[in-house]
Design brief:
Helix content: 40-55%
Structural class: mainly alpha
Number of helices: 27
Strand order of the largest sheet: 6-3-9-8
Strand content: 5-15%
Number of strands: 9
């Protein structure tokens, strides 16, 4: 998460010994994490994942192959229609002919000594391929993909493969209210696997995403179901169907379930879904969940933390932080876990100047994950680790944005957060948060889509939107010895003894003093202090006849000069940024394009790529050379580059 989209996988390469310790599903998640790191780098996907993708190797690990297929889908998130979906679909169909499974079947297919049999290996690879398809073909409505996923779900009734297949069906048919919903609901009632039932409940929620009143019949069906797992899905159906609408009916329904349902899971889901409904009006959420955050039920308190994190993501809202701070000290570990994650979501790309609590929160998270802090439970430490990844997401160049600056809903971000919070049941779902992370940058290009050297003005102090300073690891403090207690009567006795000794020494010194000794050079401590005090008085009283300052005044002037030197240089009121520039969402209102009169942006106030109009087309341009470095070091392959669109008139 911390290196999302940066292609910087040096941590994995530099810690191969640590990486080799990952086994089973930890290996699956680690391999899939490569997809988050290389997200959006489409041309390098095969090069990066080639060592891990399924091959004709009987000794390959199914966890590595399954994780690589999931990673392949994450790299192509929102860009996976067409060849990418076809590749993942073909991999899903070809699993039965894998040499790994054939070799295992030839050996008897038994599971001895902890080894996986052919069916178990098959399930793991199918799980990864289905999740990869879910991300790559999200919202495509591809019926061929849907049919293959249905076949995988209905024919095997496998908990591992079925969980991913069911979720993928919902994501492929995102927001379509597909007619297959009835089949999915019927299968949820017939299967015995909780994993599949939960995924089908979420899948039905995804098919109703953004449909508002059209989803009411499905909401009613799920909310009144006898199975608490399907009621759990019903709460997310409300949250996703009415996402960003602040609909009063939806809010009342969620609040009613949050305090009345007999299942803790359903109550937790209801409170979390409030964050989706109100993310366009985040200022209402702290007031709404104040009482819920003080509930006796820890699941409700946890839901309140996540609701605050979803609705107030990236805002740095003080009211939300004030509610979450006591929950970081909650007696229940998973409530602390939720509070840490929510704080990170709220403070993502918030500087210390904007919110002084940022430094304190970062320091707290570093202390909790440190080896010296053994008071926290593993569950709370896990939350702190995830929180550190979120607060520094994408190299501190990304934020969580559930809507655009113009107010349009970011469907992929909403889906990413909705699946991310399911990490409660399945850790690999953590990687879905990469769908919610959006780069915060302005990239100005000319009519040839080249980046000219161009200045962008930020009319705010540089420190207001600067990168946060690195937090140092907390060093172990040495335990100091406790001083020995001393009775007051003993102390008085010692003082009398010391006084008598001093008087005896003074008498002896007086007897040994010669007549030639002067008052300003006495040998006693008192005499010396008196002599020096007299000298200081004499110096301070002396004045130069010419009116020159005394020695004391010169010394005072010297101190004043040193203070002036140590004073900080005044911070400028604005900052000039080079193209391309990191510009946070909060910084956009301070951005102007009046530094270089040659280029005029066609559209202002937007993130991402901005097209510049050249007012002096006849003159030569100073173009920024270089591009995204490739792993091979050679030029990028542009054979698959699509043709540019025909000329058109831009109307703004």
């Amino acid at each position: 998460i911390m290196h999302c989209g940066t292609t910087r996988d040096t941590f994995l390469r530099d810690n191969l010994d640590w990486l080799s310790k990952a086994i089973n599903w930890a290996k699956f998640t680690t391999t899939a994490g490569l997809g988050v790191i290389h997200k959006g780098h489409l041309k390098e996907a095969f090069t990066v994942l080639d060592p891990y993708l399924p091959k004709q190797d009987a000794n390959a690990s199914p966890y590595t192959e399954g994780g690589s297929l999931f990673a392949f889908g994450l790299i192509h998130a929102k860009h996976g229609h067409g060849k990418v979906s076809e590749y993942l679909l073909q991999q899903l169909k070809n699993i039965d002919s894998s040499p790994m499974l054939a070799a295992d079947a030839g050996g008897g297919g038994g599971s001895q000594g902890g080894a996986l049999d052919a069916s178990q290996k098959k399930e793991i690879i199918q799980h990864g391929a289905a999740l990869g398809l879910a991300v790559a073909a999200m919202g495509s409505g591809n019926l061929e993909v849907l049919e293959e996923l249905q076949s995988l779900l209905y024919s095997n009734d496998s908990a591992v493969a079925g969980e991913a297949a069911a979720l993928a069906m919902g994501l492929v048919m995102l927001g379509t209210a597909t007619e297959h919903s009835t089949e999915m609901l019927n299968f949820a009632h017939s299967t015995q696997h909780e994993k599949i039932i939960r995924s089908l409940g979420l899948a039905l929620a995804f098919t109703m995403c953004g449909l508002e009143e059209k989803a009411d019949s499905m909401i009613q069906t799920l909310a009144l179901d006898k199975d608490p797992i399907l009621r759990y899905g019903g709460q997310f159906t409300i949250g996703l169907a009415y996402a960003g609408t602040a609909n009063n009916k939806a809010i009342r329904q969620l609040l009613h379930v949050a305090v009345s349902d007999v299942s803790d899971d359903v109550r937790r889901a209801a409170v979390m879904s409030l964050g989706f409904v109100l993310f366009r009006q985040p200022e209402q959420v702290p007031r709404l969940v104040t009482l819920l955050s003080e509930s006796y039920n820890p699941h409700v308190r946890y839901g309140a933390t996540i609701a605050l994190g979803i609705a107030c993501a990236g805002t740095g809202m003080k009211e939300a932080i004030a509610l979450l701070e006591p929950l970081t000290r909650d007696t229940v570990p998973f409530v602390r876990q939720g509070a840490f994650i929510a704080l990170a979501m709220i403070l993502i790309q918030v500087s210390e100047k904007m919110e002084p609590k940022v430094k304190e929160v970062r320091q707290q998270l570093m202390e909790i994950i440190g080896d010296n802090y053994k008071q926290q439970s593993p569950m709370a430490k896990f939350g702190a680790i995830i929180a550190l990844g979120i607060i520094d997401a994408g190299g501190r160049n990304m934020t969580i944005a559930l809507s655009s600056r113009a107010g349009h809903m970011n469907i992929s971000a909403i889906v990413g957060i909705a699946v991310f919070v399911q990490y409660w049941y399945w850790y690999p779902f953590l990687l879905f948060i990469s769908l919610a992370l959006t780069p915060t940058a302005i990239i100005a290009v000319n009519s040839h889509l080249e980046m000219p050297k161009y200045k962008i003005k930020s009319n705010a102090r540089p420190s207001l939107f600067a990168y946060p300073a690195e937090v140092k690891e907390v060093e172990e403090k040495a335990v100091k010895a406790v001083p020995t207690a001393q009775l007051s009567i003993t102390k008085k006795h010692q003082q009398r003894k010391d006084k008598k000794k001093a008087e005896v020494e003074a008498d002896e010194n007086k007897k040994g003093v010669t007549p030639t000794s002067t008052s300003d050079t006495t040998t006693t401590a008192t005499g010396t202090m008196t002599g020096e005090t007299e000298k200081m008085d004499i110096v301070s009283e002396k004045k130069d006849k010419d009116g020159q300052p005394t020695a004391m005044e010169i010394e005072k002037e010297g101190v004043g000069t040193e203070k002036k030197k140590t004073e900080k240089v005044e911070e400028p009121e604005f900052e000039l940024l080079d193209n391309p520039a990191r510009v946070t969402r909060a910084q956009l209102k301070y951005i102007t394009f009046d530094v270089d009169p040659r280029y005029v942006p066609i559209t202002e106030g937007v993130h991402g790529v901005i097209l510049l109009k050249d007012t002096k087309p006849g003159e030569s341009e100073d173009i920024i050379t270089g591009g995204v470095p490739t792993l091979g070091g050679g030029p990028q392959d542009e054979q698959d580059e699509p043709e540019p669109p025909p000329s058109f008139l831009f109307l703004g």
